[in-house]
């Protein structure tokens, strides 16, 4: 098994491409070891000292490290953990995988606007940020303000504010006049 690695815009995060399907659909964000308990793959990676986050995509695994842990020491261990996982035949996530698209649900008077926001995120934004090892999902819409959840390499990325303001906010405001601002949620 040959696993490729790619840098991401976030220096604390690396993207690992095992050359196999990681998740059949959707994404899974494990911002800490406790959240990764339902994932045999995430548990293996969190067992490595210095790993602070794991994000699973369709064909990639994104790993975030602590500030003081050097990639030179972590990378071989992470490659080994990913290889062991795929050789074990265990699923990436135990039990039923979530059947949703990652977006928060929204009912009410703005449901048409929210539908447009989600469509633009799915067709224009999410494919681009997936290439960088992350994901951005809809969290809420209130009085013209769109709240988005940053995951994987996007969470804590130095360029995420620029991506939100100059990229996503401009895109949404262009196509949906009701959008005034875009803000991240923790």
Summarize the structure.
GO terms for molecular function: iron ion binding; iron-sulfur cluster binding. This protein is of the alpha+beta class and 186 residues long. It has four helices and eight strands.
CATH superfamily caption of the largest domain: Scaffold protein Nfu/NifU, N-terminal domain
Largest sheet: 5 strands, antiparallel
Which descriptor suits the 3D outline? elongated
Structural class: alpha+beta
Alpha-carbon Rg, integer: 17 Å
Average pLDDT confidence is: 90
First and last CA, distance: 36 Å
Give the strand order, joined by hyphens, for the main sheet: 1-2-5-4-3
Supply the number of helical segments.
4
Question: Which architecture of the largest domain per CATH?
Answer: 2-Layer Sandwich
- Which topology of the largest domain does CATH recognise? Ribosomal Protein S8, Chain: A, domain 1
Describe, in plain words, how this protein is organized in 3D.
It is a single chain. The protein is α+β, with helices and mostly antiparallel strands and 186 residues long. It folds into 2 domains: 85 residues, Scaffold protein Nfu/NifU, N-terminal domain (Ribosomal Protein S8, Chain: A, domain 1, 2-Layer Sandwich); 75 residues, 2-Layer Sandwich (GMP Synthetase, Chain A, domain 3). 33% of the residues lie in helices and 24% in strands. The radius of gyration is 17 Å and the shape is elongated. The chain starts with a strand and ends with a strand. InterPro entries: FSCA_dom_sf, Nfu/NifU_N, Nfu/NifU_N_sf, NFU1-like, NIF_FeS_clus_asmbl_NifU_C. One of its GO terms (molecular function) is iron ion binding.
